[in-house]
Amino acid sequence: xxxxxxxxxxxxxxxxxxxxxxxxxxxxxxxxxxxxxxxxxxxxxxxxxxxxxxxxxxxxxxxxxxxxxxxxxxxxxxxxxxxxxxxxxxxxxxxxxxxxxxxxxxxxxxxxxxxxxxxxxxxxxxxxxxxxxxxxxxxxxxxxxxxxxxxxxxxxxxxxxxxxxxxxxxxxxxxxxxxxxxxxxxxxxxxxxxxxxxxxx
Amino acid sequence: xxxxxxxxxxxxxxxxxxxxxxxxxxxxxxxxxxxxxxxxxxxxxxxxxxxxxxxxxxxxxxxxxxxxxxxxxxxxxxxxxxxxxxxxxxxxxxxxxxxxxxxxxxxxxxxxxxxxxxxxxxxxxxxxxxxxxxxxxxxxxxxxxxxxxxxxxxxxxxxxxxxxxxxxxxxxxxxxxxxxxxxxxxxxxxxxxxxxxxxxx
Lengths: 201, 201
Hints:
The first copy, chain A, is α/β, with parallel strands linked by helices and 201 residues long. Chain A has a domain at 82-201: 3-Layer(aba) Sandwich (Dna Topoisomerase Vi A Subunit, Chain: A, domain 2), CATH 3.40.1360.10. In chain A, 43% of the residues lie in helices and 10% in strands. The first copy, chain A, contains eight helices and six strands. Chain A has helices at 8-17, 25-37, 39-56, 73-76, 91-100, 127-135, 150-163, 188-196; strands spanning 58-59, 66-67, 84-88, 106-109, 141-144, 169-172. The first copy, chain A, has a four-stranded parallel beta sheet with strand order 4-3-5-6. In chain A, β3 (84-88), α5 and β4 form a beta-alpha-beta unit.
């Protein structure tokens, strides 16, 4: 949209929305038109919700989750098992595990993975505070739920080495065939893991 | 994301963003995490831009475009040819034509198409004001740039009938093979139109 079509205010809104993951310039324009059509039901509440998020959302100083309270809802939840700590790369991963609803544990968000190429070292992640939490005595098991990528696994090994002296049990997610996965589309590493850890039918 | 994962404020932002076209619940969550990571560069300016849009964007009382001024930038542009009026269904169509940069004309946004099934009659569109603009004397040609859908074409016929007494020339967009289009994938109507209106090579 050239600036002469509409005012700079609309153009600015389009450009900002286009920076969201999943939206490009074209879908951002459609979103803006939708927002303006639904001014009272959507544009106004969304502007408010963003303002509230901007002002009130903080990172949890314990686990790194984001919430409007610190410690976050999960860390304050007394029904959560404090003896299991699930280490994830990002808040998105934490949410994914929570959506699955499989765990009643607490979390530790690393904030990324070690990546020498991108200049991400241990001091850029929340590894020091993880070791601290492990040493505090309450935690019995640390589940390294990092992505099965090279960087993710490197980071897991690095953390496992650091955790060894604490005596806390360190586990990781199982490799195998994803549910619904077709063997034909899986890589050899996954197939090897699935075969090696095969279970009795 | 269950409410217990994060506060209701985050959940509300996710739900509102998920209502934008092109975003679903999952991409809305990713967008929210992105927004919170880029709080100063993106979340805050976006909240502001939405507030500005909410407060300042109005529909042009002349053509139906949206802008922060009424009449809109296009209607106020003295360099635009006032003798050609391009009739479009929506502001999105107006923007699409402007992006193509082919026209130096003015527009008239209908606000939709006639659709008896959806209860959209002539009084729900800006047809009356279009006739008024046609009668005012400045307009020599009205291009019916509506979609090539059944409802679009029905609306075009309806408008053309109403415009006939004004003596203004009424035209419509050509049908044919889209640039880059493959014949194999085109419907018979398009092929027939492309054949019928074939031009000398």
